[in-house]
Write a structure and sequence with these properties.
By secondary structure, the chain is of the alpha/beta class. The protein has helices at residues 3-11, 29-35, 40-45, 47-58, 80-90, 94-102, 107-112, 116-134, 154-162, 164-190, 214-234, 251-256, 273-276, 304-318, 338-348; strands spanning 22-23, 62-63, 138-139, 197-200, 205-206, 209-210, 238-243, 261-264, 288-293, 323-328.
């Protein structure tokens, strides 16, 4: 099997010749440069080319994107200083939030006015550009924009609690833009421009559980998500939901969205792969597991041999129960030893 065939087989729940591996979340330029036999100066001169070379060295089958930090010395996509500055500039008041909701136009106009063909042409151009650079690696970028936004700031959460009707109006508007993006991805899948598996999701949980009640999510937010995802499900897309925090109280609702798999899993939040693999989709199919190596435990304070043992354990746990694609739970930060990253990928080829 080549990389594309192996990855697609895993998405289709078919047998593969070896464990498929996903890449894309190496967040520390020094690691990326070392894997590509380059230095950090080389990385910053051409971060994309150096990143692709690093992932070829690791022999990954697919890439969900490239993680390029905001600037040298950083591993985040945005610096802490920039984030604080942005929050100070744009932080809304509760009154601002309410005024914005009151000013919303009919959400159906968003879809009606959407320039689909022009947007698809631009989307396709970007896909072809990165697939060309990826070479034999399957380019299958994560699509966070196909899921309606979920508020996490204090002002929006206060609005949901104090003004339920405005909260419902807010969630009526959110899926329109997400559904437009979903239509683009669905067409690309139908035309076989990208693999059928798409990583997506929104963080609706903290480490202690859902940010709002599961009942509120079921009544108000997840119906908006279902509407947005319809074009993709109709196209046969295998949606894989990113699971941060303690998602256990809402896992049944997430699966009811029509997702085919799960990614992430923070063991420190009580998420156990041995329990996850026994879950089924809403059509009673086994799950696709994209993971499960934790960046806070499995890859951090361990040795290469321990990492390889974790990979073997994951293979054994999923065998006969779920389709496993090896990946990390989140971005691979500077404190994770490079030898452990290499060991994880070597274990997939054993």
């Amino acid at each position: 099997m080549n990389n594309h065939e192996r990855l697609q087989a895993a998405f289709d729940m078919r047998k593969t010749d070896r464990l498929p591996v996903m890449g894309g979340w190496l967040a520390w330029p020094a690691h990326v440069a070392a894997l590509a036999d380059k230095n950090e100066e080389d990385f910053w001169q051409d971060p994309e080319s150096v990143s692709f070379a690093a992932y070829r060295r690791l022999e990954v089958d697919g890439l969900i994107g490239l993680w390029i930090p905001a600037r040298p010395g950083e591993y985040r996509g945005i610096t802490a200083e920039d984030m604080m500055s942005r929050q100070e500039k744009v932080k809304p008041t509760l009154e601002d939030v309410i005024k914005k909701i009151d000013a919303l136009t009919d959400f159906r106009q968003v879809e009606k006015n959407y320039k689909f063909e022009a947007s698809y042409a631009a989307y396709l151009h970007e896909l072809e550009k990165y697939q060309s650079q990826a070479g034999g690696i399957a380019w299958c970028p994560a699509e966070w924009g196909i899921v309606p936004a979920f508020p996490r700031d204090e002002e929006h959460l206060m609005m949901l609690a104090l003004y339920p009707e405005k909260g419902r109006r807010y969630f009526m508007d959110q899926p329109a833009a997400a559904r437009c993006r979903a239509r683009l991805v669905a067409r690309a899948i139908k035309e076989r421009k990208i693999p059928t598996g798409i990583l997506t999701g929104k963080d609706v949980c903290s480490q202690s559980g859902p940010i709002v009640s599961p009942a509120y999510l079921k009544e108000t937010y997840f119906p908006a998500v279902k509407y947005a995802l319809e074009p993709l499900l109709e196209a046969g897309t295998k949606l894989i939901w990113h699971c941060d925090g303690n998602v256990k109280p809402v896992l049944d609702q997430i699966l009811d969205l029509g997702v085919a798999g799960l990614q992430g899993f923070q063991s420190e939040c009580g998420i156990d792969l041995k329990e996850i693999v026994n879950l089924r989709t809403r059509n009673d199919k086994p799950l696709i597991i994209l993971g499960p190596l934790s960046v806070t435990t499995d890859l951090l304070k361990t040795t290469p041999e321990m990492v390889k043992r974790k990979v073997r354990d994951a293979i054994n746990t999923c065998r006969g129960k779920a389709s496993l694609i090896l990946f990390t739970s989140n971005t691979v930060t500077p404190d994770i030893p490079l030898d452990n990253i290499i060991a994880m990928h070597e274990a997939a080829r054993c």
